[in-house]
Amino acid sequence: MRYLTARKRAEGKGASGTGTEHHWYMTMSAVGLAFIVPVFLFVFGSTIGAPQEAVIATFSRPFPAILTALVTVVGMRHFAKGAQMMIEDYAQGSARKAGIIVAYSISYAVTAVVLYALAKLTLIGFFLGIMAH
Amino acid sequence: MADVKRVERPLSPHLQIYRPQLTSLTSILTRITGNALIVGVILAAWWLLAAATSPEYFEVANAVVTSWFGKLVFFGSIWAVWYHYLAGLRHLYFDAGKGLEIATAEKLGLACIIGSVVLTIVTVILV
Question: Which three-class secondary structure state does DSSP give residue A49?
Fold first, then answer.
């Protein structure tokens, strides 16, 4: 048993029960994304619409692959928590819970799809490289 | 216990009552652009998955992505990402307790709108 007064247990947690954790995560991810998103826009924008060989060649290189993975993982966490904020503002009860679950599911699904695609593109690029030699 | 008398309390101004202003418009646009970006993200993720799957599947995804629909989604996403980007920076500045005077906040809002349009044009030209 911990000898905490009721006040001490509640302090800093606020109405959310988690204090400023959510807001702080949005701040941190925003700063991180501010550095990588412009570079990602350039890499991704230059590749979209290109033939498949060019797409494989781009995303099997370390920099575009790691950058895309980073933007996806951090961006999708940022999205999930941002969407949660919107849902909590406009929906109550079960609709709120369902909405948050849907938003989180979409963000995790997109993350999984992109990471799978990147891993596979890297492998394809690797084997194409071996066959070229 | 004595009856509790209901008091007619003043209602704080909310969306339906408040006159739309530059500051409120630029604030809600941050939320709209941030959440709408998921459409472009899903399309991009699907295209990437197709590229990793087969030439036939890639052909389908590439046709969608380069169609007028795909171009519209990505063009909109470029503007949305830049708007959300600048508005996010503005929020970080607000969080530091700065720029909250009405005149400054309105200037920053205008900067977000103009800046996002300029950056969209620059991105489309460069990419």
Answer: coil
